[in-house]
Amino acid sequence: MESEAPRHIAVGNLNIDVYMVVDYIPGPDENAVAREAYIGPGGAAANYSVAAARLGHRASLLSHTGRLAEQLGVLGLLWERGVDTSLVKIHDNEMPGIVIVLVAPGGERTMITMRGANNLLRGDEASGAEADVLHVASRGTEVLRRAASTIRSKIVSYDPGGAAARREKSRILEAARELADVLVLNRVEYRLVAGDKPLSEARDLLGGKLKYVIVKKGAEGAILVTRDGLWHVDAFRAGEVVDTTGAGDVFIAVFNSYLIEKSDYITALQAASIAAGIKVTRRGAQSAPSREEIERFLRENPPRVHEYEGGA
């Protein structure tokens, strides 16, 4: 009898994403006409859940939202995409999180966010649950602490996002060392969390429970910090970039999925780069690739991984 697929519980935001595809990002007092528009589910934790489900893993989303999200079919779309929404708390008198995304040619984007019911998230709403991977996204360290102390999991990953990194700075690292196996940052967040420490010395950030730090560098790829060394993976080029929204969420979902399956962080890093590279060629934050697509490129054209030698 085959064992069950790994289970992920993603804790964080669930949003209604309203996309407007425009020829340029307007400035003050300007009006850009949208050539295309669409509405769908979004939020870092929701994006992560869809990406994990696309790999055949079991994915549960722990979030809060308003009744409007249900009425617009957002929860139904997540369910159709393989995500268990039984841990989503629906409020009758709260607005759901809403994000307006303006996407220009080349993938440039501007986002306007209203958190709404997302502000009610504590992190301990699924006390006693079990998972192979617990992922906390775009939330502060108190949510991480409550989730990690009430949900049993083999791997805990934490992607605090820009707002939490600016607000809590070095406290992000302190909490990650205590509670997380994987810490995910972009370049700006790295500087906020690590201060003046250059990436070449990033192994000093590891300690306690924390085994991996991932620094996302967009078109320049990503850096994986491990106890064995620092590894740079090239950004995977799958075609024309049309929308970068959610690429980081896809990256960490695939990294965690391959890590829990294979315990091989190099393969996980390559698979994550491939997945993000495919995603940015597609519209929408939840256009993650399938396992078959990722595996094909892993066999035929895996992105280069080499030891990181310093630099920006």
Automatic annotation (TrEMBL):
Organism encoding this protein: Pyrodictium abyssi
| Occurrences of domain Carbohydrate kinase PfkB (ranges) | 10-288
Xref: PANTHER family: RIBOKINASE, SUGAR KINASE
> What Pfam families does its record include?
PfkB (PF00294)
Keyword Transferase applies: yes
Keyword terms:
Kinase, Transferase
| InterPro entries linked | PfkB_dom, Ribo/fructo_kinase, Ribokinase-like
- List the protein's name: Carbohydrate kinase family protein
Similarity remark: Belongs to the carbohydrate kinase PfkB family.
Q: Which GO terms describe its molecular function?
A: kinase activity
